[in-house]
């Protein structure tokens, strides 16, 4: 009888391994060592939590199982894994829009995930009675958890330009983990890292004192403010900035007028356009994320910023 139970333990491990391989290749379209190891580890963690005698751990395991089923059904429904754009949109919406989206996808995603979670929970509850020992699963889970962490750190070290990119934008680490750990944890890691990155540049407080360049002169002759922003382009290739070929004739004409002002040797307040725009228009600087004041530039109506 004991031998049969030990064999059942090996069979369960083999089934979890096969499921992890099939999920990565067929559903998430990932076929490298870290995704395979991480998916196997997460499935093991979920299994160990569900068969645990602690009610709290069992509830955590059921919730994790629901998220796993939701992720799988979403991937099958949308014919692809959850993308970074989808995760980013979750951070840029409000609770009302989230509830409306969930209501619209209840029959397609949430209800099937609930049914599958309940069915798998009762199946695992029956399997638990025939296992020889839960401790062996715990040791194997801990071993593969450390292995996942170690392999991920090795890939971070070996990935060309990843560490410099992370220093410039922490969301690059979230994108990397989303790719390497496709089952739930990678998504959660990106959301956590991206939410921190977004909050770093968001300031919703009302400005009590407006910048001097705005309020210093109540009545001026400037009826329009023209803001030209070059997106993903190299300033040294603009003829308006001195490039020999006539690449920007209209800009060159605007900035050659008497009231034009050129400010040289400036750089962006943030490495990403979405953060830089709001900070620039709020008079932030790279050294100061709060509203700052500086002396107004008189008798100038058009500005060109020459990025250094």
Describe the structure.
- This protein has 308 residues and is mainly alpha-helical.
- It has helices at 2-27, 33-50, 55-78, 84-91, 95-104, 106-128, 135-158, 162-168, 171-180, 185-201, 212-215, 249-255, 273-281; strands at 260-266, 302-307.
- A two-stranded parallel sheet has the order 1-2.
- α2 crosses α3.
- The longest helix has 26 residues, at 2-27.
- The protein starts with a helix and ends with a strand.
Spatial arrangement of strands, main beta sheet: 1-2
Biggest beta sheet attributes? 2 strands, parallel
Number of helices: 13
Classify the helix fraction into a percent range: 55-70%
**What's the N-to-C terminus distance?**
76 Å
Oligomer: single chain
Given the C-alpha coordinates, what overall shape results?
elongated
Taking all Cα atoms into account, the compactness measure Rg is 27 Å
Low-confidence stretches: 293-303
SSE layout:
Layout: H1 2-27, H2 33-50, H3 55-78, H4 84-91, H5 95-104, H6 106-128, H7 135-158, H8 162-168, H9 171-180, H10 185-201, H11 212-215, H12 249-255, E1 260-266, H13 273-281, E2 302-307
Parallel strand pairs: 1-2
What's the short story on this structure?
The protein has about 300 residues and is mostly helical. Helices cover about 60% and strands about 5% of the residues.
How would you describe this structure in keywords?
single chain; 308 residues; mainly alpha; two-stranded parallel ribbon; 13 helices
């Amino acid at each position: 009888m004991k031998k049969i139970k030990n064999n059942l333990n090996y069979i369960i491990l083999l089934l979890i391994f096969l499921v992890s391989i099939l999920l990565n290749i067929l559903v998430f379209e990932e076929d490298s060592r870290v995704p395979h190891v991480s998916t196997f580890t997460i499935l093991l963690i979920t299994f160990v939590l569900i068969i645990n005698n602690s009610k709290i751990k069992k509830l955590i395991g059921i919730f994790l199982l629901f998220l796993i089923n939701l992720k799988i059904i979403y991937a099958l429904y949308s014919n692809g894994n959850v993308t970074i754009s989808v995760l980013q949109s979750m951070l840029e919406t409000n609770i009302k829009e989230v509830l409306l989206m969930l209501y619209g996808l209840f029959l397609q995603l949430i209800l099937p995930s609930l049914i599958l979670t309940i069915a798998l929970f009762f199946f695992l509850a029956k399997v638990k009675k025939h296992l020889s020992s839960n401790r062996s699963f715990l040791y194997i889970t801990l071993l593969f958890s450390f292995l996942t962490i170690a392999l991920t750190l090795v890939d971070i070290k070996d990935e060309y330009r990843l560490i410099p990119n992370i220093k410039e934008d922490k969301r690059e680490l979230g994108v990397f983990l989303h790719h390497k750990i496709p089952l739930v944890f990678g998504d959660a890691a990106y959301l956590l890292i991206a939410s921190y990155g977004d909050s770093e540049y968001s300031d919703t407080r009302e400005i009590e004192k407006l910048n001097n360049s705005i309020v210093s002169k109540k009545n001026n002759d400037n009826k329009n403010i023209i803001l030209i922003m070059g997106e993903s382009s190299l300033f040294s290739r603009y003829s308006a900035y001195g490039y020999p070929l006539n690449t920007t004739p209209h800009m060159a004409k605007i900035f050659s007028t008497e009231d034009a002002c050129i400010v040289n040797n400036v750089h962006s307040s943030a490495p990403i356009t979405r953060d830089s725009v709001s900070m620039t228009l709020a008079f932030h600087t790279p050294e100061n994320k709060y509203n700052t004041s500086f002396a107004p530039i008189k008798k100038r109506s058009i500005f060109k910023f020459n990025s250094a």
